[in-house]
Amino acid sequence: EVQLVESGGGLVQPGGSLRLSCAASGFTFNNYWMSWVRQAPGEGLEWVANIKQDGSDKYYVDSVKGRFTISRDNAKNSLFLQMNSLRAEDTAVYYCARPYTRVSDAFDIWGQGTVVTVSS
Amino acid sequence: AIRMTQSPSSFSASTGDRVTITCRASQGISSYLAWYQQKPGKAPKLLIYAASTLQSGVPSRFSGSGSGTDFTLTISCLQSEDFATYYCQQYYDYPRTFGQGTKVEIK
After folding, report:
1. CB–CB of A2/A76 below 8 Å?
2. A10: phi > 0 → left, psi -120 to 50 → alpha, else beta; which?
3. What is the DSSP string of A18-70?
4. Of B76, B79, B91, B66, which is closest to residue A45 (Cα–Cα)?
5. What is the pLDDT of residue A115?
6. From CA B104, how far away is CA B102, in angstroms rounded?
7. What does pLDDT average to in each consecutive run of 10 residues of chain B (107 residues)?
């Protein structure tokens, strides 16, 4: 079964850090770009970042540039999101997502999400 | 960033209705558009990609059309399980952006 499972969410104070993980299974992980997408409580979807198959290219939404870093470990079929200098507006459910093809960002596989709450 | 604007933001409909949701991009995105369905507490589900290609396993009552800046998602005969929030998303340029969502409620 093709599956993505996120972990690492939790409650963190403003200015703090958190590292999210996404474990992939059931497909050839290193064939795909991978993304993080978030959803603030009661709000819509926001794409956060993506990373190329070999990790050589990365893109971010402006609001997280310089604070978040996406990375991957293909040997462990894992995707990561290092989040630093967290703000209240980063509070959201964070999903990892896989596109339906190697070169697309229409996401057909999503994890269940991990909740990040930034609050004092 | 390319802005994606959906209309309406919400509406009520009845089972069996034909419904159409519109998505407009602030600049041309060719056919690099996807549609998702999301139910409360669940991850989004891909319905359509490349503006009009039905994802495997998605019922044929869902269809998409458009290219450039104007796109539509149509549900030909609304079923009870279709009451949800729908999002469009462009993947033509960075950052990838979503519409604000359209909530389809039961009349």
Report:
1. no
2. left
3. EEEEEEEESS-GGGS-EEEEEE-TT--EEEEEEE-TTSS-EEE-GGGTTTEEE
4. B91
5. 98
6. 6
7. 98 96 98 97 97 97 98 97 97 97 95
10 Å CB burial of residue A15 (0-12, 13-18, 19+) is exposed
Six-digit token string for A94 = 């964070």
Judged by CB atoms closer than 8 Å, whether chains meet at A47 and B34 is answered as: no
* Inter-chain CB proximity B43 and A62 less than 8 Å: no
Confidence of residue A41 (pLDDT cuts 50, 70, 90): very high
Please identify which residue in the block is written with the tokens 């549609």.
Answer: B35
Note whether A110 contacts B44, CB cutoff 8 Å: yes
Question: Within its chain, how far is the Cα of A41 from the centroid?
Answer: 17
Q: Can you tell me the distance from the alpha carbon of B6 to that of A119, in angstroms, rounded to the nearest whole number?
A: 31
CA A88 centroid distance within chain: 18
Q: Are the C-beta atoms of A17 and A82 separated by less than 8 Å?
A: yes
